[in-house]
Amino acid sequence: MSVTGAASPWVSIAGGLSAAGKKTGDFGRLFCVRGKAGGAVRLVNGWKADGAVLEGGGAARGLLEKGVAEEEALNAFKLGRFVEERFVYRQTFVIRSYEIGPDKTATMETLMNLLQETALNHVMSSGLASDGFGATHEMSLRKLIWVVTRINIQVDRYSRWGDIVEIDTWVAASGKNGMRRDWIIRDYGTKEIITRATSNWVIMHRETRRLSKMPEQVREEVRPFYLDRRTILQSDNDSKIDKLNDETAENIRSGLAPRWNDMDVNQHVNNVKYIGWILESVPMKVLEEYHLASMALEYRRECRQSELLESLTSMEPKEEEGPESGEGDLRSTHLLQLQESGSEIVRARAQWCIKEPA
Question: What is the pLDDT of residues 153-172, one digit of tens each?
Fold first, then answer.
């Protein structure tokens, strides 16, 4: 951007940038307004054009208003926005055809990918993001990354192809050295909450792969964004997940191999990929007749691309009685382990509800 004529009262706006009291060169789509001397003028991302007067006829005014509306719409769908005094980040998504399963609804992997995308965009939009996968500036200086230790997701209703969903996310402290991230997913049209999720994160050194205490500098970066609001009760999230073994598992699927495309930018298997491997050992009849109502995953260690995995599953009738329980509902326990050594990768627990007729 080039700046000329510093004494000019003209303010040029392109792509949401402004230069009050100056004339700016055109570096894209350019809109001009006459502003107050020394006053800042910005017309996108929620800022008002205080004291500004549109210069030109109706066509120019219409072009500006159309451009601002397009910019705001693009921002809402691409990067989202902050709400509730910037403690909550909100983003909107359309469910695509390649994100649905055989029953024409979004899959659990789709929901988890959307949660991850919203979380990363939250960090990026907050100005904290550095060169890591969600790492802050102070974390990158110390070669630190975030790793998830536990995720719990509860789904009341799955969206269908073409539905629009609105996702809110925020963060809070978790113990002395961790962070908790929560989400809610709403139906965009009705504002009904259809999914709740919570997760716990710790810090790892990118090269040694050892867990690290949270440096005070990192704590100071993230503390202003903390909002202590839970979507899932702590007692529900902290309940123990039983360990399966070859004797207690009813179904075992071996020979699962991580691929290059399963790795993320932190050089470990993306946490969403484990869900697909877990479901590999679920009986086909269950997948056809039931949907996942909730899932809790406890991440025990990383796995490398060269390591083969085994998926273990045990199914049983759901014992809990309550208004949300239906006759015939199931629960399951899962384990992903290294095929050669039996070392645990992920423990999981799930609840299944009978699918309603289409």
Answer: 999 999 999 999 999 999 99
